[in-house]
Design a protein that fits this description.
The protein is α/β, with parallel strands linked by helices. Helices cover about 30% and strands about 15% of the residues. The longest helix is centred in the middle third of the chain and has 11 residues, at about 70-80.
Length: about 110
């Protein structure tokens, strides 16, 4: 079972800088607007890119359009041996459809 964080919880943790956001949407959607600091790794690319991401002890939340594919992404990331077992890997409940906070636009940080 994948743990879920509400958009409010994600926003609060992004403000504190203590969570890493993995945005699993296609690049074009990501560039139109994403959670500040989010890393764009489209879901289809995730299996091949997980080993290339430098995982540390920062908690991770996956974000997608409606909060469904982000659960798959969170399961995949949490199963990767390079991710510390003590790190929270969660999905954002409701996805971007429920996100009521400011978004960054354009291409931002890449893994």
């Amino acid at each position: 079972m994948v743990e879920e964080l509400t958009p409010e919880e994600v926003h609060e943790r992004v403000q504190k800088g203590d969570i890493r956001v993995i945005d699993t949407r296609p690049a074009a959607e990501y560039e139109r607007g994403h959670i500040p600091g989010a890393i764009n790794v489209p879901l289809g690319d995730l299996p091949s890119r997980v080993p290339d991401i430098e995982w540390d002890d920062t908690d991770v939340v996956c974000a997608c359009p409606i909060g469904q594919s982000s659960k798959q992404a969170a399961m995949l990331i949490s199963s990767y041996e390079g991710v510390d077992g003590d790190v929270l890997v969660a999905s954002m409940a409701g996805g971007y459809e429920e996100w009521d906070f400011e978004l960054e636009t354009g291409a931002a940080a890449d893994a």
